[in-house]
Amino acid sequence: MQICRTISELRKVIAMWRAQGQTLGLVTTMGALHAGHMSLVANATRDNDRVVATIFVNPTQFGEKADLDAYPRTEDEDCAQLQAAGVDAVFIPSVDEMYPDGEETIVETTRLANMLHGKVRPGHFRGVTTIVAKLFNIVGADAAYFGEKDYQQLNVIRKMVRDLHMPTNIHGVTTMRERDGLAMSSRNVRLTPEDRIAGLVLSRSLAQAEKLAATGATVEDLQTAITDMINAEPRATLRACDIVVADTFELASGPITETIGIMLSAEFGDVLLLDQREITP
Ligand code: PAF
Fold this sequence. Notes:
The chain is of the alpha/beta class and 281 residues long. Helix 10 runs antiparallel to helix 11 (219-231). The protein is globular. It contains 11 helices and 9 strands. The structure holds pantoate. Pantoate (PAF) binds at residues 28-30, 58, 61, 128, 131-132, 150, 153.
């Protein structure tokens, strides 16, 4: 596996593959890889001749500097996992490489980025689309793989690609879970043992919502059931429980007649956890 730290190094490697007519898949990450990332890699290696993974803790998508500083960095272990999984090249740029002095361009899905979870984390999705657009331009992949756990992020990226006519196909990959149901996340290692147990309330409340939906409950019933359950967990601070129509990302209401997406975020200590579920009537 090639380790590239500059754009020009990576472009040389990719140009060689492209000259041989090979297809290219991309998995963008911020490192601290877990089985959720590796399932993105598995999809990418299955579908493409060559796979590039990126490791870059993107400062522009973090609100608090403390959150950015606390983000786990495990480059050696990450590279070992990527190599074992058959990744052909990993791109690990510096902040200066990605954000050169004097740069001023941002990419933003102006509506989608600033609603729902975007309101809880102002500027977050703008940071994501800006860095993902840069990485797409650098790599020029045929396909890129993103987890469904970050449901709004996946939709924001799909929208950016559509609006800017980017030639990369976006694939959403099912959320990977720990055996007890906790959605896998690089942030999980920062949970205290008590918060790790308390965090299960997210997947439990989603399972409860799915059961309710099967009995004909409305969107409002689901919202109440979820918020009641999370608010009853003293270690959780609910930040958002948004239920949207999956196709349009408009807020859903009333009887469930089309596929809805439920997006949750809650804090456990200083760790923000996300979870998500799509429900089809
Ligand atoms: O999902 C992530 O890990 C990040 O938001 C991404 C897509 C790599 C952009 O920094």
